[in-house]
Amino acid sequence: MLQPKKKSKTVRFNRKKHLRNLKRNKSGRNATVKMATYAGETKRTGVTTIGGRRAKVTKHYAAPTITFKGKEKAKKQSFQQALDSGEVYEFKSKRRAANFACGSWKKGKSKLTRRQLKACRKKNNG
């Protein structure tokens, strides 16, 4: 399980806007962002359930797996490198993280339909 460091921040709000405004998305390349999903650590919250136990919460993350600067060739990027560069997006559900990684943040001609998102999730999750 991947766990971000305390000092590094994940993007929790305005995720689509943040990703669309990345400098590399304006480079004119076709594949500027290829993403993967990651599951974080499961923690118990302060909220008690009907059975008297504390509820479990798992955070899910989506992060780019490739990176490049300018006209250089794309290279692989780890979760920690994405975290250091501020490109890790945090979600409460696995499905939302998977949709975001598949491309739900896109708009215009490249925007995906519900059917395409479902196919992408199915392909990536096995």
Describe this structure in words.
The protein has 4 helices and 5 strands; from the N terminus they run αββββαβαα. The protein has 126 residues and is α+β, with helices and mostly antiparallel strands. Strands 1-2-5 form a 3-stranded antiparallel beta sheet. A two-stranded antiparallel sheet has the order 3-4. A hairpin with a 7-residue loop joins strand 3 (66-67) and strand 4 (75-76). The mean pLDDT is 77.
Which parts are unreliable, with pLDDT below 50 for 5 consecutive residues or more?
none
Question: What would the principal axes of the Cα set say about the shape?
Answer: globular
Order of helices and strands: HEEEEHEHH
**Could you tell me the strand content as a percent range?**
25-35%
Largest sheet: 3 strands, antiparallel
- Mean pLDDT, as a whole number? 77
**What gyration radius follows from the Cα positions, in whole Å?**
16 Å
Give the termini distance in whole angstroms.
19 Å
Helix content: 25-40%
Short description:
The protein is of the alpha+beta class. It is about 25% helix and about 25% strand. The two termini are about 20 Å apart.
Q: Notable features of this structure?
A:
126 residues, alpha+beta, 3-stranded antiparallel β-sheet, globular
